[in-house]
Write a structure and sequence with these properties.
The complex is a heterodimer of chains A (174) and B (190). Chain A is globular. In chain A, α3 links the parallel β5 and β6. Chain A contains 5 helices and 8 strands; from the N terminus they run αββββαβαβαββα. With 174 residues, chain A is an alpha+beta fold. Chain A is 32% helix and 26% strand. Chain A has an 8-stranded mixed β-sheet. In chain B, the strands form 2 sheets. In chain B, strands 4, 5, 6, 7, 9 and 10 form a 6-stranded antiparallel β-sheet that branches. A 4-stranded antiparallel β-sheet of chain B has the order 1-2-3-8. Chain B is built from 6 helices and 10 strands, in the order ααββααββββααββββ. Chain B has 190 residues and is an alpha+beta fold. Chain B is globular and about 50 Å long. Classes of the chains: A alpha+beta (174), B alpha+beta (190).
Chain lengths: 174, 190
C-alpha cells in the first residue's frame, strides 16, 4: 500500500506548481525568493496589497512613461489582462515615481484599460530591485518570486499566454 | 535625422536605455549629437554615447525636475552605456572594477552615494531621486545570456580625453574568465 501511495505521489509531481518549466524567451526561472511587500493605491485611491490569501499567481509589472520599451509593452499587457480575465492570475501593474497627470496621459493614449498602482515616491519599486524598467516578476501563490522577465515582451504572443495559463492552472498544488 | 535613427536603433536594442530617444529628439535640432563609440568581442557588445549637458537637461526637465537639480546634472559628464551579453553564460558587471585614466591620472565614476548626497543637499523630492537612480547604469548586474541593459555613467567634468576599461567576468566551468572592453579617447560632450 505504501509503495502505491509513493507511486501516486510521484505521478502527481509533474503537474505541480512549477510544471511550466519551458519558459518562453526572456522569462528566467530564478531561485525562489520571498516577494517584497507591495501595498499601494491606484488612481482612484483604491488600495491593493499583494498577499497570498487568494492562492493565485501574480504578474507584477513595474513601468514608467519615460521608458520607451514600456510604451511598446503596455498595450500587449492590456491585451493579456483582457484575454486572461477569467484565469487565476492577478495582474499588478505599478507605475514608478510619476505624477498622476503623467500616468493618466500616458495610459489614456497607450493602454486605457490598464489600472495601475502608483508608487509615488518610487520606494516600493526599489524594494523589488528590478534590473531596469520595464520589469516583470511572476510570483507564485505562496508569495515566492519564481520568474523574472528580462526587458519588455510581447505578451499578446501565444507562447507567453500559454505559459501564464500553465502557471495559473497549477495554482493550488505544491 | 541620422542621429535620431541611431538613437532609435540603440534604444530598441537596449531596453533600459530610455534616455536615448527622448534626449535626442528633444535636442537634435539644436546641436549635432556626439559620436557614439562601439566595441565588440565574441562575448560582449558595448556602446558608449557622450551626452551633452543640454540633452540631459532636456530629459530631466521633461520629467519635471526642479531647476536646481537640472543645474546639478550640468556639473557632471554623462555617458549612456549599452551592454549586450552575447554569450551563453552569465556575464557579471561590476563598475567598481572599471578603470578610467586620463594622461596618466586615474579618474573615478560618480557613485550613487555621491548623487544621493547631492540630492539631499538640494532637498530633491524622493520621486525625482528615484527616477534619477533608474537612469543610471546598475553598479552590479548578472547579465543573462542575450540580455541587454543600459543606463548612464557619470563623472566630474574634464576637458581632456580619457580611456575607459570596462571589466566583466564570466563564470565558465567554475572558473572566472575576465573580459575587458576598452574605449580610448572618450571625451565629455559639452
Amino acid at each position: 500500500m505504501k509503495k502505491i501511495l509513493i507511486f501516486i505521489f510521484l505521478l502527481s509531481l509533474p503537474i505541480s506548481i512549477y510544471a511550466a518549466t519551458d519558459a518562453p524567451k526572456g522569462i528566467i526561472k530564478i531561485t525562489p525568493r520571498t516577494a517584497p511587500p507591495l501595498s499601494l493605491e491606484n488612481m482612484d485611491g483604491d488600495k491593493f496589497t499583494l498577499s497570498t490569501k487568494n492562492r493565485r499567481w501574480s504578474f507584477v509589472h513595474f513601468w514608467a512613461s519615460w521608458c520607451g520599451p514600456c510604451r511598446r509593452e503596455m498595450p500587449t499587457i492590456q491585451s493579456v489582462i483582457q484575454a486572461m480575465s477569467k484565469d487565476n492570475i492577478d495582474f499588478v501593474i505599478v507605475n514608478t515615481a510619476e505624477s498622476e497627470d503623467t500616468v493618466f496621459s500616458f495610459l489614456g493614449a497607450v493602454a486605457p484599460e490598464v489600472d495601475t498602482l502608483l508608487d509615488r515616491d518610487g520606494l516600493a519599486t526599489e524594494l523589488w530591485k528590478p534590473r531596469g524598467l520595464p520589469s516583470t516578476y511572476l510570483v507564485d501563490p505562496y508569495g515566492q518570486i519564481q520568474y523574472v522577465v528580462i526587458g519588455g515582451q510581447d505578451w499578446q504572443k501565444e507562447r507567453y499566454q500559454t505559459f501564464l495559463r500553465q502557471l495559473s492552472a497549477a495554482r493550488n498544488t505544491r | 535625422m541620422i542621429s535620431r535613427m541611431n538613437s532609435l536603433l540603440l534604444h530598441t536594442k537596449y531596453p533600459s536605455i530610455f534616455l536615448l530617444l527622448i534626449c535626442t529628439l528633444a535636442t537634435s535640432n539644436l546641436q549635432a549629437a556626439p559620436k557614439r563609440h562601439v566595441v565588440e568581442n565574441p562575448k560582449i557588445r558595448m556602446v558608449v554615447i557622450p551626452r551633452t549637458a543640454q540633452q540631459m537637461a532636456a530629459f530631466y526637465e521633461g520629467r519635471e525636475f526642479p531647476v536646481n537639480a537640472i543645474n546639478a546634472t550640468g556639473d557632471a559628464c554623462f555617458f549612456t552605456v549599452g551592454i549586450h551579453n552575447k554569450s551563453q553564460h552569465i556575464l557579471w558587471l561590476d563598475t567598481d572594477k572599471w578603470t578610467l585614466t586620463s594622461a596618466g591620472r586615474t579618474l573615478s565614476l560618480l557613485s550613487r552615494a555621491y548623487w544621493t548626497q547631492r540630492w539631499k543637499e538640494l532637498n530633491l523630492q524622493q520621486r525625482f531621486q528615484s527616477t534619477f537612480r533608474w537612469t543610471l547604469l546598475p553598479n552590479q548586474l548578472d547579465f543573462q545570456p542575450d540580455e541587454r541593459e543600459g543606463g548612464n555613467i557619470t563623472l566630474a567634468r574634464i576637458n581632456t580625453p580619457f580611456t575607459l576599461s570596462a571589466h566583466f567576468t564570466t563564470k565558465i566551468n567554475n572558473h572566472d574568465e575576465a573580459s575587458i572592453i576598452t574605449f580610448n579617447n572618450l571625451r565629455c560632450a559639452p
